[in-house]
Amino acid sequence: MSLNAVPSADRIHIGIFGKRNAGKSSIINAVTGQSLAIVSDIKGTTTDPVQKAMELLPLGPVVIIDTPGLDDEGELGTLRIRKAYQVLNKTDIAVLVIDRSAGMTAEDKRILEKIQEKKIPYVIAFNKSDLNTNGQECKLSESADPSRCISVSTLTGENIRELKELIAKQVPSAGTEKHIAADLIHPGDFVVLVIPIDSSAPRGRLILPQQQTIRDILEAGGAAIAVRDTELQDTLARLGMKPALVITDSQAFKKVSAIVPQDIPLTSFSILFARYKGNLETVVHGARTLDLLQDGDKILISEGCTHHRQCEDIGTVKLPGWIRKHTGKELLFEFTSGTEFPDDLGQYRLIIHCGGCTLNEREMKYRLQCACDQTIPITNYGTAIAHMNGILNRSIAPLNKRSS
User: Fold this and answer.
1) I want to staple 388 with a disulfide (CB 3.0 to 4.6 A). Which of 2, 132, 292, 326 is the partner?
2) Which of 267, 295, 304 is nearest to 385 (CA)?
């Protein structure tokens, strides 16, 4: 896969934080060698988090996130600061930019404490080293690691290359290579992907989980055969051999399960991505909470992306309908999308999240941890649908039989 084709969710997310006019935007432009961020002497030029996917050497594919100033003022400024802090939930590496002539302030110390609390690797860039400070050295917070600090100048270019190298050193060491489906098959295996094409399917393209799964299968030497649910039965009959695996869109789970023989492994894109992002056990447990719901319970249905909702939208229409039918209870539903995710989850009996294909691993884990910390069960669309159709055990069974 070309580096430029790496999905944003799989890129290293670098969050740039600091006070207004500390030089955050100038740092971004200097590090990337591009005019990505607007630079101005007027305080508060960056009013909302802005992110840009790009390739940054020596790191490779990254997402750079510019944030509003931590010392913004007024009611609107308070909201902007809150948005800046929310960016921490998706930040893999934090860069705290400090005006060297002003030194480390209370706002800088607060954000550093939060960065350290969340165990985010960080770098502190003391900008404007070209200004005369009469030999005065900036005083670090007692908790700041001096080895992560560097003085730079975006005006003269001093230590910009060294700053990039210091950022690169903060990249977490790679763990075990993760796969979506490649470790479930052998080279030469056939995998059938069931992709319904209906009013909710994007015109002219496949959604991200489908694209990524196809690529993963091809890299494993498998053959990916994509069909609509309406052609599935005929396709299985004409293949001449059993596929090693059938992967379906969750909305077609019930129909597909009835067609696919029991001796052919079956799962869904959503369940595969729960495993890929490391939360399968959590969402399976959460799905079984559906059987315990009572009248008046409130359920949060949350999506990681924002999109135009269709009349038969899965999150706001289909899922609530299926859940009411499954439980026979009068339930309350609330909905969030995009970056919005409540801090206080205590009012909910259950959270049902999308597959999180547009969220990076850190943000997905943050949301899961929020639920765990407040002892609120959480599941995802596909796992909940499989449970309500009585096929959850069947749909997770293939994941327990990894290929050798």
Assistant:
1) 326
2) 267
Looking at residue 231, its pLDDT comes to 96
Residues near 200 by Cβ (< 8 Å), separated by ≥ 6?
Answer: 251, 310, 312, 313, 314
Helix (H) or strand (E) holding 378: strand 378-380
Q: pTM for the complete prediction? A: 0.75
End-to-end CA distance of the chain: 25
Q: What angle do CA 43, 49, 54 make, to 5 degrees?
A: 115
3-state secondary structure of 377: coil
Sequence-distant (6+) residues with CB within 8 A of 9 are: 208, 356, 357, 358, 359, 360, 361
d(CA 65, CA 397): 39
Task: Give me the residues paired with residue 18 across strands.
Answer: 97
Summarize pLDDT for 383-397 with one digit per residue, the tens: 999 999 999 999 999
